[in-house]
Here is the input.
Amino acid sequence: MGRLVINVAVTVNGAFEAPAPEAQGSWLVTDPDSMRAGQEMWQAADAMLLGRRTYEGLSAVWPELAHVPGYEAYAARMNGMPKYVASRSLTGPLAWNATLLEGDLAESMSRLKEEHDGNLIAPSAGELTRALIAHDLVDDFWFHVSPYLWSTGPRIFDEIGPVRLELVNTTTFSSGIVRLCYRPSAADAAAAA
Here is the structure.
């Protein structure tokens, strides 16, 4: 059975939308080890789960990165892997190896988890992610925390919670990025049942 993973890059104070490059640079930090770990995560994933806005943004960028030196293998995986898009406004068929999810989100996710053995990764923190959390559909939360305090942009998971998490794993990279892997607390899940 597949696992649904929310995967998001954030600043220390929780900003999750990187500003446009012309707006005072960017808080998103990378280094060779964190890039390799990210590539390994995507190589091991079965599929990607996206909301409309994330789908539109990523599908416009990743095909262009296929021929950028250093991004070829990463882009090949991102462009080639199956994607599922939850949207109330898009109609199919979709480009970029994507399938539109139709009907109830909880039912669609249960079906996808049954169809896949590996991770279904949702790389965002927007409306879809909030709905997945509200329906208790998330198995893991992976945060890639960049060493910045950033004064602009929305904060991750505003208006969500409380959701108690258990720390599963941490990885620190030479650039100061810390990857924190959490899952919803088993004690809280048992109490809710």
